[in-house]
Design a protein that fits this description.
Helix 7 (162-197) packs antiparallel against helix 9, helix 9 (221-237) runs parallel beside helix 11 and helix 14 (355-391) packs parallel to helix 17. It contains 18 helices and no strands. It is globular and about 60 Å long. The longest helix has 40 residues, at 7-46. The relative contact order is 0.11. By secondary structure, the chain is mainly alpha-helical.
Length: 464
């Protein structure tokens, strides 16, 4: 066997041939793959089949719908962000800030009346019955002017300037004093006829006590209405401090003078009427002092020319104020005429049954008035807050205040109902020792307790 002389060259030759064949096969495979990729690419670009083309259209539609949905969601989100949130109001604090001082200020008068009733009850059932008749006469006489207070509060609270509020206050006080003088003159000359209309004849044992009290206390009528109107004006200013000071002065004067005049000096029922009148004079002096101080301080800030220009630009005139107040009083008389008639008729009917019934009527009335003024305190806050909300022309605020005050009125009415029911066994003996009067009172007290929720809601809705 002959071996190759160069085995390495032979191996190289064989390996070279093998590599050439491998490279040729790889070239063919590469060309085939490139050809296939071209075919796939053309099919993808042109749409090789209807199914493929439909899929592309569906994808395009889906993408378009997603884009539009996303745009709508973004726009909705932006619109929600741009919407103002519903305002949340908190009325508890401002209501308490207005109602509590007003309560302390206004509660003084019914508390004084209750104290007056308790003192006169010690004199016997005839003087107590006389007080009941006179209280009804005074209430009917003054009721036609009490809307001056409410109208003044609204006008002052909604005044566009300090000078406008000052004009409202001065006009209302002038009307109040004039009305008080008219009541004074009428009761001074027609007192016996008024008592006769209430069922107290000149031959009755109640008549001399009633005429004495009526003729003495009517002298303070102008001061009473000045206090009423001044309180309304200061409520409009949002000032409940001065009414509080005035009520303190009134209560202190009454507490000091009544036992002195009634028992120490022996004036009996005339002493009670005189103490009541002097206490109202002291309250009127407090209001006059602070209102004059308020007006003088406000006048010092602006010149007289500026004040005149402010009044000239104002839409509110003295005649319009007068017309508004008269209209408010006429409206109240028309709306509450049935109440006035019922009040007078109840007193007259009680007088027909005797002194014990009238005396029980007076005790129940004085007790009722105390809780009525307690319930009325919330209406002070309601009136001021509603007036300011209407001035700002905020309907949401007006609705919020009204809803809140209605809830508070209902709750406090239920609370007062429970209090009166609990005090019923103890109240009669506090005012009198007459068994006939006590017996009548025990039948009246449950009726009073059942009225409180309705009274509370009436006070709030009346100023709404």
């Amino acid at each position: 066997m002959v071996l190759p002389s160069h085995p390495s060259k032979t191996m190289i030759f064989f390996s070279t041939n093998r590599n050439n064949r491998n490279s040729n096969s790889n070239t063919h495979i590469s060309r085939i793959l490139i050809f296939l990729f071209l075919i796939i690419g053309i099919a993808s670009a042109e749409g090789f089949s209807p199914a493929t083309k439909t899929n592309h259209l569906a994808q395009r539609n889906l993408r378009s719908s997603l884009i539009s949905s996303a745009s709508a969601a973004v726009s909705n989100n932006e619109s929600i962000k741009m919407q103002k949130p519903t305002p949340k109001y908190s009325w508890t604090k401002p209501t308490l800030e207005l109602a509590l001082p007003a309560l302390v200020a206004s509660i003084a008068d019914p508390l004084i009346s209750m104290m007056d009733t308790a003192y006169i009850g010690r004199l016997g059932k005839e003087p107590l019955a006389a007080l009941g008749v006179c209280t009804s006469i005074f209430y009917i006489s003054f009721y036609g002017f009490l809307a001056t207070k409410t109208a003044t509060t609204t006008l002052v609270a909604s005044a566009s300037s300090n000078e406008e509020a000052k004009l409202v206050t001065s006009t209302s006080i002038q009307l109040g004093v004039a009305a008080g003088l008219s009541v004074l003159l009428f009761l001074s000359f027609r007192g016996p006829q008024c008592l006769g209309a209430m069922g107290i004849e000149a031959t009755s044992d109640i008549f001399p006590h009633a005429l004495t009290y009526l003729s003495t206390r009517c002298l303070s009528a102008p001061f009473f209405l000045l206090i009423t109107v001044s309180e309304g004006a200061l409520r409009g200013y949002g000032d409940t401090r001065i009414p509080l000071l005035a009520s303190i002065a009134t209560s202190a004067t009454m507490a000091a003078l009544e036992p002195l005049l009634m028992f120490a000096l022996g004036w009996h029922i005339r002493g009670s009427a005189a103490a009541m009148g002097l206490s109202q004079v002291s309250g009127a002096l407090v209001y006059s002092y602070f209102l004059r101080k308020r007006f003088s301080s406000s006048s010092g800030v602006k010149s007289k020319d500026a004040d005149k220009d402010s009044l000239d630009q104002s839409m509110l005139t003295k005649s319009k104020i007068f017309a508004t107040i008269v209209k408010a009083n006429a409206s109240m008389i028309l709306k509450q005429g049935s109440l006035l008639f019922t009040w007078a008729y109840a007193t007259k009917s009680a007088a027909k049954f005797g002194a014990a019934h009238v005396a029980a009527h007076q005790v129940a009335l004085s007790f009722w008035m105390v809780f009525a003024y307690i319930l009325d305190a919330v209406s002070v806050g309601a009136q001021i807050l509603l007036s300011k909300a209407r001035t700002r022309k905020s309907l949401d605020e007006v609705r919020s205040v009204t809803k809140y005050m209605a809830s508070v009125a209902t709750i406090q009415g239920l609370i007062i109902t429970s209090i009166i029911a609990g005090l019923t066994p103890y109240v009669p003996s506090f005012f009198t020792s007459d068994e006939a009067v006590i017996s009548q009172l025990k039948t009246l007290m449950p009726v009073l307790s059942m009225q409180q929720v309705l009274i509370s809601l009436t006070f709030v809705f009346e100023v709404s």
